[in-house]
Structure formats: structure tokens, C-alpha cells
């Protein structure tokens, strides 16, 4: 018994006496067109599902649901994902056949003795046809037909750009269809579409894990900046406190050259403390606990103050140090922290 489709066209045969002499019936076989449309529909659904799956489990569920809708061509299917190491394959889903049965074990060891020839497919690197299913597995579901499938095709699924297999597809062959070139080509296209679905899902998973890793690294960086800033600010505060105490003494108690050196130390200590506070503010801004606002600043005065820190070292080398920085008419825009989330 073979699955076939026909279109019948009826035409009346008139006679000369204005009566009807009979009916002419034209029969056109449309089996090839019906099968092609059915198979193209399955491939189209798999292609559209490649952009929807976000995890490997979702990809397997989508494949299972899509293949289950074409039980005429695929009375049963099994999808086995190859685990790391390449010695075991785990059942991730299927259609038409319940899991855990003789033909659908949860795990297959690729030792050459498995019920499905996965090791032979891995060695040959192409699909392998297996026969005598009813003798080895018992009666299997035939989809819409009462006959049990006697053959199945075991196909490898490879990820694009990789040499190793990602999974195996076991597809039952309909008992009412001949396994011709069109049928074989359709199964190869199914395997290719499944490879795209699984590959896209795994790529999305890797990208999500990468984003999570970067987010975790960013949080660690913010925490590090915050901790280091606190550790730097404590000794700087103690040093500046001692210097300020000495500078606060009467001029007669401190030698002029010492006072000048302490003024430079104090000025640069304040600058270093400001940098540490800026680092702490930066970590707070990244953490979303503070927001920067802008205000005018005297760029000329800031430049003169910054350059004065190098005066003593330059003049000790016998070099004259001149700073020419007249005040600017346009104020320089600087930032300062705001202790609230919004200002």
C-alpha cells in the first residue's frame, strides 16, 4: 500500500441528439506536489524557529513540536545530543514515540552495541539506514497509518564551522512511502535545519553567559575601586592632618624653607586626595548611587596650581621654570559629584 494523491476532472460527453452519451474522467496524479508542499512547510517552520530558541532545551522542544506535525513523512523521531567526550548521547526529545522505551532509551553509549547505530554514523560521518526495526524494537508508531515502520534513518547533526557532531536525528521512514532520492534529500534538509536551530540557541546561550561574565567583572571592578579608594584615603587624611598641624604653628616655630616644602607637600597631598575621591566617585557613579553634574571652573588657576608642584624639582636642576597661563574668557566646564541619585 502506497500513499498517493490524485485530482479527478469530470467532463460531459454530448451526443448529436442533444443528450449525454457519457462522462469523460481525467485523472492527474499530484502525489509529488502534495509531498513537496508538506515537506516545505516543515522546513519553513524549522527555519522560522531558529530565531526563537534561546536555549538548547527550547530548541529541542521547538524541533519536537515541528516534526510532530508531519507524522506522514516522520512517523517517529528521536533527537540525541552528544555529550562532552563524544562517548554518550542523551535523549532531548522526539515525536510519536514515548521516552524510555526499548527504541528510545534516555542515554545511549557509543560503544558500537547501541540499539541505534550512532557509532557507525559517527565513523562514516553520514546518515546510516537501519532496517528490521520491528524485530529489534517491537511495534513502532506509524503516524496516521496502521503499519509499523520497518526502517529508520540515523543522521548526524553538525554545528556550522565545527567538525564534531552536535547531535543525532533518528527518523522513522513511513511504511507507505518509498525511500527515494526526494525522501532522502528531505531528511538531509531536516538535519541541516535542526543544526541551525541548535547552533543559534547555543550561540545565544554563550553570548548571554559572556554578558553575565562581563557584568560580574564590572561589579568586581567597581567594588575594587571603592575598596582601594577607602584604603588610600585613610593614610592620606592622617598625613595631611599632621602637615596642617605643623603649618598652623606660628611662623617663628617653623623654618621658612621647611614651611615652603610643607606647603608643597600639603598642596600635592590635597591633589592626591582629590584624585582618590574622584576614583571613589567614579565607582559610585558606575554603581548608580551618584550622578555627576557640571559647573564652571577656572582652568588657568587650576593649571598654575598643577604646575607649581613641579617647581622645586625643576629649579633644583638649575632650570628656570616659568608658567604663562592668563585667565580665559570662557570658563572651563568641570564636574562635581552629587550625593543624590538625581539633581
How do the strands and helices of this protein lay out in sequence?
Blueprint: E1 6-14, E2 20-29, H1 31-49, H2 56-68, E3 77-82, E4 88-95, E5 107-109, H3 118-124, E6 128-131, H4 133-137, E7 151-158, E8 165-172, H5 181-247, H6 256-286, E9 291-297, H7 299-308, H8 311-316, E10 332-338
Antiparallel strand pairs: 1-2, 3-4, 3-8, 4-5, 6-7, 7-8, 9-10
Description of the molecule:
The structure is a single chain. The chain is of the alpha+beta class and 343 residues long. It has 8 helices and 10 strands. The protein has helices spanning 31-49, 56-68, 118-124, 133-137, 181-247, 256-286, 299-308, 311-316; strands at residues 6-14, 20-29, 77-82, 88-95, 107-109, 128-131, 151-158, 165-172, 291-297, 332-338. The strands form 3 sheets. A 6-stranded antiparallel sheet has the order 5-4-3-8-7-6, with helices on both faces. It has a two-stranded antiparallel ribbon with strand order 1-2. The longest helix is centred in the middle third of the chain and has 67 residues, at 181-247. The radius of gyration is 40 Å and the shape is elongated.
Taking the sheet with the most strands, its summary is:
6 strands, antiparallel
Element order: H for helix, E for strand: EEHHEEEHEHEEHHEHHE
Q: Strand pairing plus helix content: what structural class?
A: alpha+beta
Please report which band the strand proportion falls in: under 5%, 5-15%, 15-25%, 25-35%, 35-45% or over 45%.
15-25%
Q: Major sheet: order of its strands?
A: 5-4-3-8-7-6
Q: What oligomeric state do these chains adopt?
A: single chain
Mean pLDDT: 83
Number of helices: 8
What is the CA–CA distance across the termini? 81 Å
Amino acid at each position: 500500500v502506497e500513499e498517493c494523491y490524485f485530482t479527478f476532472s469530470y467532463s460531459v460527453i454530448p451526443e448529436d441528439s442533444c443528450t449525454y452519451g457519457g462522462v469523460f474522467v481525467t485523472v492527474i496524479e499530484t502525489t509529488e506536489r502534495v509531498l513537496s508542499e508538506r515537506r516545505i512547510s516543515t522546513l519553513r517552520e524549522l527555519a522560522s524557529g531558529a530565531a526563537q530558541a534561546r536555549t538548547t532545551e527550547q530548541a529541542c522542544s521547538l524541533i519536537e513540536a515541528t516534526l510532530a506535525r508531519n507524522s506522514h513523512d516522520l512517523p517517529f523521531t528521536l533527537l540525541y545530543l552528544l555529550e562532552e567526550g563524544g562517548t554518550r548521547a542523551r535523549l532531548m526529545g522526539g515525536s510519536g514515540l514515548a521516552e524510555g522505551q526499548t527504541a528510545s532509551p534516555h542515554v545511549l553509549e557509543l560503544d558500537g552495541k547501541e540499539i541505534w547505530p550512532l557509532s557507525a554514523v559517527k565513523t562514516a560521518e553520514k546518515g546510516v539506514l537501519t532496517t528490521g526495526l520491528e524485530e529489534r524494537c517491537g511495534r513502532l508508531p506509524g503516524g496516521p497509518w496502521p503499519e509499523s515502520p520497518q526502517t529508520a534513518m540515523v543522521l548526524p547533526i553538525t554545528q556550522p564551522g565545527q567538525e564534531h557532531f552536535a547531535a543525532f536525528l533518528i527518523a522513522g521512514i513511513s511504511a507507505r512511502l518509498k525511500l527515494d532520492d526526494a525522501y532522502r534529500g528531505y531528511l538531509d534538509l531536516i538535519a541541516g535545519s535542526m543544526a541551525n536551530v541548535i547552533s543559534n540557541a547555543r550561540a545565544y546561550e554563550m553570548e548571554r553567559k559572556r554578558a553575565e561574565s562581563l557584568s560580574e567583572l564590572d561589579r568586581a571592578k567597581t567594588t575594587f575601586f571603592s575598596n582601594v579608594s577607602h584604603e588610600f584615603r585613610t593614610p592620606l587624611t592622617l598625613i595631611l592632618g599632621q602637615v596642617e598641624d605643623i603649618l598652623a604653628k606660628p611662623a617663628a616655630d617653623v623654618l621658612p624653607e621647611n614651611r615652603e616644602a610643607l606647603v608643597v607637600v600639603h598642596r600635592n597631598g590635597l591633589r592626591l586626595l582629590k584624585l582618590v575621591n574622584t576614583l571613589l566617585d567614579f565607582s559610585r557613579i558606575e554603581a548608580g548611587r551618584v550622578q555627576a553634574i557640571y559647573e564652571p571652573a577656572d582652568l588657568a588657576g587650576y593649571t598654575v596650581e598643577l604646575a607649581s608642584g613641579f617647581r622645586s624639582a625643576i629649579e633644583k636642576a638649575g632650570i628656570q621654570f616659568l608658567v604663562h597661563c592668563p585667565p580665559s574668557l570662557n570658563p572651563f566646564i568641570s564636574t562635581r559629584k552629587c550625593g543624590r541619585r538625581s539633581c
